[in-house]
Amino acid sequence: MSALVSGPISRAAVAPITDVNVNLVAAPALPSGFPSHLDSELAWTPASLAVAADFILRLNEDDITEVNAAVAHFKTLDQDGDLVEPTNFPLPTLGPKLEKLSREVHNGKGFSVIRGLKPASYPVEDLSLVYLGLSSYIAEQRGRQDKRGNMLVHIVADNSTKLAAEHHRHSNKSITFHHEEAGDVISWLTRSTAAAGGKCIISSAYTVYNVLAATRPDIIRTLARSDWPFALPRFQCRPVIFYQDNRLIMNFGRAALLGNEAHPRSKNLPSLTSSQMEALDAIESIARATEMEIQTQAGDIHFINNLAILHRREGFADGPTEKRHLVRMRLRSSREGWTIPTALEHEWERAFKEQGTKNWHLDPMPDFYFPLRSQPN
């Protein structure tokens, strides 16, 4: 597959769709109600994205000036930082661009990048306000990301213990394609990049579906059955894919289905069948054959539609001074948000609706952080 654009911004990563190893023999029909083809902007391949301008919003000097003025305005209000929203973070010129980006993430290609921020030019408190303020124009609701109530998750390498080194948040190993357990939109701010590796790699679940629907509808049937034994964040049998409101929704992660060193799977839980393993491998194969890499820069803010876009991470290596540090949020828009399938509602409610602790750590904290301390060790 030819390069997507010239230069280092992004490129088609591997072989074209026709290279996917699929079985073309006759197979059972698609599940009832599932379409034979998804005709949507979300069904993209790298070759269909002509230029980086299709998905990168580059902030110019006027935009940065407007952002800085919004930070200064918010700080005069004497409000907690987690209350930042479009009404108190005014962006009269940039705001409409961000609202267009929100529509693109929810109903267009399903992803976008804001580029042009310089993290080193802001104290961490102001940089966090910028991140929350800009993202509030994309999706204003922010969700918990774990049982501790962390609202900002810091993704940094940590090999202080074997358990930490194997956790997705703190490992520097590659990760297969997956979705987060909850959140219509997943966003992350890149505070700093690794010395090598660590690219953002995404693929369209719609494109994966179209390939399978045309070649292996039996795998679609497997993915749509309600017998997938998810172990995380709680045990639940449900489908991997859903089709409702004329939209495909995919949600899964291998750790929740197979376990890993950080999250060992109980032997008392059902194991995946050979058909289910084949289906996971088919998703991975097609997603890798149609994936797109984005060469991340410090200051980039990524937004991906967690219901329609798969993402993975390549392995990375930090250097003495170059250390990868992402800050992630789970988001939902009251205006643009999709209807969530019943089988996924519990996780969305835990993230966005339940009352409880919300922790807004501006820097990575120890696992057993004591709430009365304001700084890490």
UniProtKB/TrEMBL annotation:
Domain of life: Eukaryota
UniProt xrefs under Pfam families: TauD
Keywords annotated in UniProt: Oxidoreductase
Residue span(s) of domain TauD/TfdA-like: 85-329
UniProt protein name: TauD/TfdA-like domain-containing protein
